[in-house]
Design goal:
Number of strands: 12
CATH superfamily: Vaccinia Virus protein VP39
CATH topology: Rossmann fold
Strand order of the largest sheet: 8-7-6-9-10-12-11
CATH class: Alpha Beta
Radius of gyration: 17 Å
Number of helices: 7
Shape: globular
Order of helices and strands: EEEEEHEHEHEHEHEHHEE
Largest sheet: 7 strands, mixed
Helix content: 25-40%
CATH architecture: 3-Layer(aba) Sandwich
Oligomer: single chain
Structural class: alpha/beta
Number of domains: 1
């Protein structure tokens, strides 16, 4: 296993891996590999937009020390399981609105105590802000028309000074008619008006079509490599 530019992420050939927090256990049927007496889980980019973003060219040093993170749209826990691997000593708060998706997420959290699931609506961060506090990383993957507004409200409520934001922009959840480039341009403009610096824009095709990842620095943080 070779280290990458992202702390805790490893590469073998074209594939990404994280060190398995619970050796011998798969979360979504992923491959397991052992190297140097350590077990790793393959991070499947067709199942995880974050893995796709890393493979498509996310900036190095995307995160350093993460003590707490807020994940909006946790679904069944595919991506958050890898964040659990990456940051075993962190608190990873996971917001999911659907009770159907929340059930397997809760089962996963029982096996991975650094995952803290919240059955809540990401559009209403005031309902979980007291539990979450301030986080180093805000990650959003929700299918709503007002994705940027949801991100901004959660960032104002929970993202720490000097933190990092990652917005997985689902273009066809915003509109079915307008070109992808126009939707992304409008999203960037809204984020910049709110004071955010866009560190990177990464298209996720072919892993996730018409999805674009935006890596963001909050208003109080210094601008980093645009």
């Amino acid at each position: 296993m070779d280290p990458t530019g992202w702390a805790g992420v490893f590469r073998e050939g074209r594939d990404l891996y994280t060190r398995n927090l619970r050796p011998g256990e798969r979360v979504y049927g992923e491959d397991l590999r052992t190297a140097g007496g350590v077990e790793y889980r393959r991070w499947e980019p067709f199942r995880s937009k974050l893995a796709a973003m890393l493979l498509k060219g996310a900036p190095p040093g995307l995160w350093t020390e993460v003590r707490s993170a807020l994940y909006l749209g946790g679904a069944h826990g595919t991506t958050v399981s890898h964040l659990s691997d990456l940051w075993p000593d962190a608190d990873v708060f996971v917001v999911e609105k659907s009770p159907v998706s929340f059930a397997p997420l809760l089962a996963l959290a029982r096996r991975r105590p650094n995952l803290l699931p919240l059955l809540a609506d990401a559009q209403l961060p005031e309902r979980y802000a007291a539990d979450v506090g301030t986080v180093d990383l805000l990650y959003q993957d929700v299918a709503q028309r007002n994705q940027v507004a949801i991100f901004l409200e959660n960032a104002r409520t929970c993202l720490a000074e000097g933190g990092t934001g990652v917005l997985m922009l689902k273009v066809r959840s915003v509109t079915q008619r307008r070109p992808v480039a126009a939707v992304v341009r409008d999203a960037r403009a809204e984020l910049v008006r709110a004071g955010f610096a866009v560190r990177a824009e990464v298209g996720l095709a072919p892993f996730s079509k018409e999805h674009v990842a935006l890596v963001l620095a909050p208003p109080s943080a210094p601008s980093i490599a645009r």
